[in-house]
Amino acid sequence: MEVIKFNTYVAKYERMAELQAFDKTKAGVKGLVDAGIIKVPRMFVQPLKVEDSRSHNNNKFIKFPIIDLDGIMEDPIKRKNIVQEVGHASESWGFFQVINHGIPSHVMDAMKDGVTRFFEQDTEVKRQWYTRDLTKEFTFNSNFDLFRAPVTNWRDTFRATIAPIPPKPEQLPSVCRDILLEYTNQVMTLGDTLFELVSEAIGLEPNHLKDMGCAEGLLAIGQYYPACPQPELTLGTSKHADNDFLTVLLQDNIGGLQVLHQNHWVDVPPTPGALVVNIGDLLQASSVTFSISVSET
């Protein structure tokens, strides 16, 4: 029996080489868009189509929790009700939105504008901040886990360590420096309030979490999602959990943020003036410990 062999050439995909070449540009995803690409590079393509990885549950009747903090300092009855709402949302969702939180809308708008200004600078200007050295007070790059994650996300990011040791002004980009410091200062104040509410919600004294040092550090992260030529193939941010105590998230009006609730992905509707609060992994672990401690006393 004669056997006929066909030699078929299959181009080998060198993912690491593509990642290294991408990182070497120091231009991020925005650099790809500015270069005029019309196809998403392979390293960004999700294993499944994006629409297939999302829940098709009709979630329009699921009401994402919104908590009004108005009167929290002046009215004991309101505060008690707010504490109960925070406790319920934290336990059942792990997320909630807060309104009337004390941070003016014009400050939040200016912060969003500051993030946009940074990422839409000329590439040559941004390159001076591009690094993967996390000891730096301010870093700009694309995908902190670029060389470890199985799929690359379609986003660029800056990170600024604001507390416990405040950065010097020259350690932050001038294009967003002032508003970054102003906004994060106000978020620190809000964070104190949130930690008080969570402490009370789990049956502890208001200052318990703060006295533990939970509110001492603050890492500011700005995410930028450039227009994508094939959005059905990739994601801006993959499924993840936050490994912190609390995340206070300011989203724009475009939407796209989702949370996993009862095994379904639920849209977080952009609400004017609202901030999204995420109970992080560290706080969840601490809450379990506190609950055991309280029950034993």
Describe it:
It holds the Pfam family 2OG-FeII_Oxy. The protein has helices at about 15-25, 30-35, 50-55, 75-90, 105-120, 125, 175-200, 210, 280-295, and strands spanning about 65-70, 95-100, 140, 155-165, 220-225, 245-250, 260, 265, 275-280. By secondary structure, the chain is α+β, with helices and mostly antiparallel strands. It has a single domain, classed as Jelly Rolls, CATH 2.60.120.330. The longest helix has 25 residues, at about 175-200. The radius of gyration is 22 Å and the shape is globular.
Show the helix and strand layout:
Elements: H1 15-25, H2 28-34, H3 50-53, E1 66-68, H4 76-92, E2 95-99, H5 105-119, H6 123-126, E3 138-141, E4 156-163, H7 177-201, H8 208-211, E5 218-224, E6 246-249, E7 258-261, E8 264-267, E9 275-279, H9 281-296
Parallel strand pairs: 1-2
Antiparallel strand pairs: 2-9, 3-4, 4-5, 6-9, 7-8
Helix pairs in contact: 4-7, 5-7
Protein name: Desacetoxyvindoline 4-hydroxylase
Pfam family, one: DIOX_N
GO biological process, one term: response to molecule of fungal origin
Tag the structure with descriptive keywords.
single chain; 297 residues; Jelly Rolls; 4-stranded mixed sheet; 3-stranded antiparallel sheet; 9 strands; disordered C terminus; oxidoreductase; 2-oxoglutarate-dependent dioxygenase activity
